[in-house]
Write a structure and sequence with these properties.
204 residues; Hypothetical protein af1432; HD/PDEase_dom; HD domain-containing protein; 2 domains; mainly alpha; single chain; 9 helices; HD_domain
Length: 204
């Protein structure tokens, strides 16, 4: 089988796994994964990746958050990599592709520390929304998912402060994202800081 054709069973498997979670995962669901795959595909096109390299980043994007289906956020990258390895053993995957996909999945662990272009692409595909106008909406979904998992209401000011801290510490890894997303990411941070200030003043 050519690498591209292996993506069809991967898509079917991951989609079924995430769909079975129902409403449990408000953010780390199939919609998020599809978005990451789309972002990775955009970056793969820009960098004109070879067929094997493109398979690596797309496969890793499909599996990068699959560890959420069987555990808490901590360690979900390792679980996702393990699920991929177990699934990949059913397919005929040549050479070191399994290892390279696994490395890309693990590279998305925060703080991200990619070691090559492919890992950088998957990292940026995962957090692409940090530099888009969708950031606020997706951050709200993260808050709702976290609140449900912890079974508690998280104070808005506390959550916003954590989100702002994450944006300040984050750096896009690829020149493509650095060039195209930096301005909106800066604006997203500005808006967060304004909301934090408003929440602080409301508590006074």
């Amino acid at each position: 089988m050519k690498n591209a054709s292996l993506l069809d069973p991967i898509e079917a498997f991951v989609s079924a796994q995430l769909s079975a979670c129902g409403d449990e995962l408000i953010y780390h669901n199939l919609n998020h994964t599809l978005s990451v795959v789309q972002n990775a595909s955009r970056l793969a096109d820009h960098y004109r990746l070879t067929d094997p390299d493109r398979f690596v980043v797309i496969a890793a994007s499909w599996f990068h958050d699959l560890g959420y289906v069987n555990g808490d956020p901590a360690g979900h990258e390792q679980r996702g990599a393990l699920i991929f390895r177990e699934f990949a053993n059913r397919l005929v995957i040549e050479g070191d592709l399994i290892e390279r996909v696994t490395n890309c999945i693990l590279a998305t662990t925060l703080p991200q520390k990619p070691t090559d272009l492919l890992e950088s692409i998957v990292c940026d595909a995962d957090l692409y929304h940090f530099g888009t106008i969708e950031f606020a909406e997706k951050d709200l979904l993260m808050l709702e998912e976290t609140s449900r998992r912890l079974k508690t209401d998280i104070p808005a000011g506390s959550w916003l402060s954590g989100s702002a801290k994450l944006l300040r510490s984050h750096q896009f890894c690829t020149p493509y994202c650095q060039d195209r997303l930096a301005a909106q990411k800066h604006e997203n941070l500005r808006q967060l800081e304004a909301r934090i200030q408003a929440a602080f003043e409301a508590d006074q």
